[in-house]
């Protein structure tokens, strides 16, 4: 049965609804960034840029870096946007837009997030690089999918008990990265941990400006929690959703984050721009070891 026009939405030019892309526009290796201005900070290193388009916060550039074809896609902020980006990227490679049916041979994408993040541990200082061994979703978006096979309930149960998690918030879900990608991108320059993916920047990450949070010591409990050697290392707003949807759709995913803030020490990077430039160079260097 063809997928209905209301479900797989194509623009008049045949491109997919939000990303505005056609299947030929994307590579099998994709770097996701939050900020649309970060796209050109990556593609300025490319030998050639073959395609560039932007709709809303979703900017895509595809080109060649030292002979490797790569697409950079900006997601904007948050897991609701990741739902759009991951479903549309998957549709671009695994659904035949003419017949509106699933392809017989499915394509596996390599999806690497290059983001910014706030550390929860003193040992992961400002200006370092964090690799997310797991994403811990607090956003709730993944609960709309059948996640039973990809979640890690013993960690989740221990986490809920230790942190006295308020059940009015969505139930946390722990999802793994691609261990193959993690091996490729890990080095003495990276620190690995569990990335907590929050549903907001202020209250949901324990920041207080004028509004008090529901649980003022939640960040302390996140800091102290450990399970079989795993600790919560950092906060950001997309990783667990990328890991969850990639695992469900059969793609490989990894999240690399430049640590611009340290919540344990109260510090913020003096030069976040230079830090993200270093993470971009690090990522591009390692990405060449991926097969095409
Ligand atoms: O720098 P990016 O990739 O946007 O990532 C982080 O920064 C944003 C918040 O300022 C959130 O998207 C968070 O995940
Ligand atoms: O503290 C931080 C820094 C960047 N992005 C976040 O979501 N949180």
UniProtKB/TrEMBL annotation:
Its EC number is 2.4.2.3. Residues 30-264 form the Nucleoside phosphorylase domain. GO terms for molecular function: purine-nucleoside phosphorylase activity; uridine phosphorylase activity. It comes from the Bacteria. It catalyses: uridine + phosphate = alpha-D-ribose 1-phosphate + uracil. This is Uridine phosphorylase. Coiled coil: none annotated. Signal peptide: none annotated. GO terms for biological process: purine nucleoside catabolic process. GO terms for cellular component: cytosol.
């Amino acid at each position: 049965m063809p997928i209905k026009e209301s479900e797989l939405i194509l623009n008049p030019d045949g491109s997919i609804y939000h990303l505005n892309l056609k299947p030929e526009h994307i590579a099998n290796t994709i770097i996701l960034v939050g900020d649309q201005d970060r796209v050109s900070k990556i593609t300025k290193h490319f030998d050639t840029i073959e395609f560039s388009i932007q709709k809303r916060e979703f900017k895509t550039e595809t080109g060649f870096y030292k002979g490797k074809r790569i697409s950079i896609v900006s997601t904007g902020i948050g897991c609701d946007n990741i739902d759009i980006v991951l479903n549309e990227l998957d549709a671009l490679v695994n659904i035949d837009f003419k017949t509106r049916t699933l392809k017989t041979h499915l394509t596996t994408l390599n999806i690497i997030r290059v983001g910014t993040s706030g550390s929860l541990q003193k040992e992961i200082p400002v200006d370092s690089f964090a690799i997310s061994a797991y994403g811990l979703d607090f956003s709730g978006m993944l609960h709309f999918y059948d996640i039973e096979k990809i979640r890690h309930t013993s960690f989740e149960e221990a986490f809920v008990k230790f942190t006295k998690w308020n059940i009015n918030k969505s139930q946390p879900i722990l999802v793994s990265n691609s261990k193959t990608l993690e091996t490729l991108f890990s080095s003495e320059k990276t620190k690995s941990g569990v990335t907590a993916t929050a549903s907001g920047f202020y209250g949901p990450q324990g920041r207080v400006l004028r509004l008090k949070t529901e649980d003022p010591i939640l960040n302390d409990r996140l800091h102290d929690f450990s399970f079989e050697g795993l600790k919560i290392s950092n906060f950001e707003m997309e990783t667990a959703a990328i890991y969850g949807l990639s695992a469900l759709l059969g793609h490989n995913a990894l999240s690399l984050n430049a640590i611009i803030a340290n919540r344990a020490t109260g510090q913020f990077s003096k030069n976040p721009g230079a830090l993200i430039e270093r993470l971009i160079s690090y990522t591009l260097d390692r990405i060449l070891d991926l097969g095409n």
